[in-house]
Every structure is written in structure tokens, then in C-alpha cells.
Hints:
Elements: E1 2-3, E2 14-15, E3 40-47, H1 53-63, E4 66-71, E5 76-82, H2 86-94, E6 99-104, E7 107-109, H3 123-127, H4 130-136, E8 144-149, E9 163-168, H5 181-190, E10 207-212, E11 219-221, H6 222-234, E12 239-242, H7 251-262, E13 266-270, E14 289-294, E15 312-315, E16 319-322, E17 328-331, H8 334-348, H9 362-371, H10 387-392, E18 402-410, E19 421-423, E20 428-430, E21 436-442, E22 445-452, E23 459-465, E24 470-472, E25 475-477, E26 484-492, E27 503-505, E28 510-512, E29 518-524, E30 527-534, E31 538-539, E32 541-547, E33 552-554, E34 557-561, E35 563-574, E36 577-586, E37 596-603, E38 608-614, E39 620-625, E40 631-641, E41 647-651, E42 654-659
Parallel strand pairs: 1-20, 2-13, 8-10, 8-12, 9-10, 12-13, 13-14, 14-15, 18-24, 18-25, 26-33, 26-34, 35-41
Antiparallel strand pairs: 3-5, 3-6, 4-5, 7-11, 16-17, 18-21, 19-20, 19-22, 22-23, 26-29, 27-28, 27-30, 30-32, 31-34, 35-36, 36-39, 37-38, 37-40, 40-42
Helix pairs in contact: 5-8, 6-7, 8-9
Amino acid sequence: MTVTRRPRRLVALLAGLVLVALVAATAIAGGGHGVPSVGRATILVKFQAGTSSADQAAIHGRHGGAVVGAIAAIGVRIVAVPAGGAAEAARAYAGEGAVAYAEPDATASAVETPNDPSFALQWGMSKIGAPAAWDVSTGSAGIEVAVLDTGIAAAHPDLAGKVVKQVNFSASATLDDVYGHGTHVAGIAAALTNNGLGGAGLGWNASLDNVKVLGDSGSGAYSGIAQGITWAADNGADVINLSLGGTSASATLQAAVDYAWARGVVIVAAAGNNTSAAPFYPAYYANVIAVAATDNLDHLASYSDYGDWVDVAAPGSSIYSTMLGGGYGYKSGTSMASPFVAGLAALLATTLSDTNGDGQLNDEVRSRIQGSADDLGLAIGGGRINAARALSGATPPPPTSGTITGSVRDAATGLPLAGATVSDGPASTTSDASGAYALANVPPGSYTVTASASGYTGAAQSVTVTAGLTASASFALAALVTNGAIAGSVRDAATGLPLAGATVSDGTRSATSDASGAYAITNVPPGGYTVSASAAGYTGGSQSVSVTAGLTASASFGLTRQYMYVKSITFRVTGANLRTDVLVVDGSGNPVAGAKVTLTERWSGGTSKTFTAKTSTTGVASLTWQKAKKGTYTATVTGLSSVNVWATSQGVLSASCTLV
């Protein structure tokens, strides 16, 4: 099967509501913290550090945006734009140099799979060994689980007194749960336990924070969710449960998750109910524990997302918990699996200690949750949680498989190749945007790992996989070569010195020689070519070459320097005037136009004159002695020059004629 996997993550907690990301943001009515008004869409904008208020205001003015709220902890502005224009506005803002990023404020919704009331009451607690875990610890009221959801019915008999903090970042006017999803999730995580009423919550004594981020129809904006995450991190939450998610990534949502993780919060999220291995956000982010759902037979639920990026699984099908109106009922989904992990994290927070000296417990909690899970051969990165083993610290069964990881890059540039296919034979995966890949759950043995990408030559490596260990196989793929090249040099034929600036052409493509005389014509299709070289002041040259795909044909040139000389001096009498014509040609006998000729002419009677003229297109410079008298006239060329670079030879220097 094909699997996709992000890098393994340390610790994070996320619950099971599913976010459905929309292309354009949905406007949300007021009543929450920093929530925009009805009738406008919203986008999320983060400015570059140091951008002045005046510059920010100017950008808002150019694009018709109005700041209606902020997620101060991560420096994000919530900006209202005309309804239906979120995507276009985000692109416009992103084009500003002072903007780090801008994105539509997408919408999240709660999604459950159909209920199945035939499952035994609270079978999930027994499946994960909750009674044995409670023998070790029943948690503490000092540990707070923030449920970011549709709200919590705090007056429910099995939740009374559990909610210690409340805040509303949704479009709803009330903190109460109208939709029913958040109340069900809260009961799984930390309902009153051992009180002779209803069901038990895995977190037992843990307290709850009601952070309402989804409205009364079960949907909410990404901005509200990000605000809820940062608020929970700043207000004492030890665990955040996010039973929500979507298929669209968000820089704002990831920044909020990273903010909470850096403050020691365990973050858990639902992996999604799409029966897919595609990334689901925010569960996919590195600082989140992504949770899949299992049924009472320890099979992966038919609706659950899967893949190596999913960290653990927990019971999620037909889960009995608190409902609106003071009652109880069943719901199914990764939304229900996530709070099992959140409740387990709350128990572990009372028993673990900081082992790496970073002053936080979230990494230890996450490591224990993932390390104590039962390997059931599920199509995810880890196993189904085992609360009893997690609390007792028992060593889980030895792993039965290993992993192959590495990267795929362009051999010439070193840049990552996204979408390359990597296979060990039985299984395959694709590289991500950074070129990284991972093949998980690989049985021990020897494998030939292959990598291929469109437009590249494939490659293979032999690796040995050991249970519990990671083998490495990285690839540098060479681009397929379909064309060749022509290269060589251009020099002065007489001196051997390089000619810079010479033009070399194969008839379609051309190149210019550098200071060393070298040139190269690249991307030349295979075939036969006549390659020509030319340079100012030189006679051009040509060669025939044959180009082969992937190879470089050679063509070097020695160009002959051009020169000019006086071929003839002739006289013509026109009336009383004597005209002298000087013909200038080049080394090939061709007329030279524009050459400057200086002629000194002497009369035998003792007078001399000097004339200057330029040659015409016929190569002739004409000079006239007005009213010439009888006698002998001797014409001598005393100067010959050109605007071009020429090696000059004056040729015929003088000639005479006699008028009688």
C-alpha cells in the first residue's frame, strides 16, 4: 500500500472533531474575542517584523482590508475583506513585501460517523486498560484539559464543577454547547468518575477548560481556533484537545500549535474521518499527537484516516458519553478517539517527571503515550493506546518491524524532489516538499529500495531492515538527458590569442566567447549542424558538427584578421578639373566602404595640395584638383584608416599623370 509520513513528532495532544477547510473564509457574527462582523469575509495576515503601523495601515488601505481582531500571541491580524473575496484578497496581501504571509480564514466543522448503539457501554475504557491505570493515578484537579470545540454543557450532572475556565472565540452568542459535540468530547476526556452516575472520564479528576471555537452549527473559523489554542496555552491548560481538522494547511494554525507546544502544552487532534492517508490539519503538524479511531475488535475504523503520519489510535466507534439535556449517548469518529488520548495525557501529567531537563513535561507525556501503545499492525505510525501500560511504565512488546527513511534530491542542483516514488518492493510512498520520505512497518530483512521521478533516471539501493530500527536510503537522481551541447574556443589565427566577444551560432542558437575565447551552446537537439564564428575585424569561419544526446560536440575556430589596401589610383579629366580616384579593397578583393583616404598631390609647376575623403560603397574615394594646369601631377596616398579594426597595407602608394 502507499503511505505518506511526516517526520516523527515528540509529544502533542489533539481530539477528534473534523475540520472542513473551505476555499474562501466564512464570515462570522460577533460575540467572541476578535470575531469579524457579518457580511464580510476574513483573512489572516502576518506582517514582517519591524513593519510600522503606518505601513500596515497603508497596505490595508490599498487592498480594502479592515483589522477586526488579532491573535496577539503569534502576531496575526484578522482582516475583514469584501464577502466572497477572501482568496483574492489573501493573494493581494501576500504580494506585499512587508507581509510574511496571508491566507483565507477557513472554516472548521464537526463531523461524526453514524452511531451504532449495539456496542457495549464504554467498551473503550476496558479496551485500553483504564481500571488498571486508575490504580496508579486518578489524576488531579490541578491538571487542565482545554476542550476546543462547540462548547461544554457545564450544567450536565456528570460534568458539574469540572469546568474551571471558559472563553468564546466562536460566532455564537453563548458559551454553552448548542450543537452537542463538545459536551460528548468533554465527557470522554474527564467526566466525573466514581460518582455513581452515568459514565467515567479517562482523566478522572482532571479539570476542564471550555474554549468554544466552533459555533452552534458545528463550524468555526481557523482564526478562532488559533485564538483558542494560544489562549489555552497562556491560561494554564496542560492539555489541548482538538476534535476538529481539515485537509487545508494553515500557517496561522501551525504557528498557534507551535506556540502552545513551546509552552509545555500537550496537543492532541483527530486524524480525520476521510478514509484517507492524505495529510489532515492540524493533526499532521509535528507538535500534535494525531489520533486514529479503532472499533471494539481493535480494527482500524472504516472511516478513520490512516498513514504513517498518524501517531496513535484510540477507541472511536460507538463511544458512550455525556450528551445535551443531561443525558448520555453514542457517537463515533476520530473526534471521540482524540479525548481518550487527552484524558490519558492528563493522568500522565501527574506521574511523570522532567527527564531531559527542558523544564516541561509535554515531551515525556507524548513519548510515554506513543511508546506504551499496543502494536496491532494498524496502518498508522503507531499502535492503539494502552493506559494501563502507560501509567505503570511497563515495557511494551518488542517491535516486529522497522522503518526505511531518507530523501530524494536532484543530483545536479541538490534541490529536493517532491513527489518522487520510493519503494521497497511490497510497499511504496512519495517524497514530500522537502524531498523526505518514510516507509513504515517494514518487516525485518533485506530490500532493494528504488526511487523514481518523472524526468529523471531511477536509482536503487540495498538496505537491511532490523525490527525497531530505522534504515537509511537517500537518493540523488540525475535528470534525463535529451539534448547535447557544442563547445570550443575562438582565437586569432596569426597570434593564437583568444578572441572575446566573438559570436558563434549553430543556426538557431548562439553564444558569445568569454575572455578566454571559450564558448558553449547548450540544449542542442541531436543532429548535424553548421557552426559559424564571426568577430569584428576578422574573416568569419564555419564547421560541420554532429550533436549526440548527453554529449558535447567540439568546434574551435582560428579567425583571420581582415586588412585593407589601395588597389589602384586612377586619374580622370573632366573639363578643366583633374579627378583622382583611389580604390580601397580588403584581403579578399572586396570594396571597403567608409575607409578614410588622405591624398597629397603635387604639380610639376611647384604647387601641392592635400585632400581627404571617405570611400563609397564601391570602395572608391574621389578627390578633385580644380582648374588643373598643364604639367605632371603625382598623387601619393599618405593616410589610410577605418573605423573597424584593420591590419592595413597601403598597397599602391602613388601614381602620376601628365596634362598636355
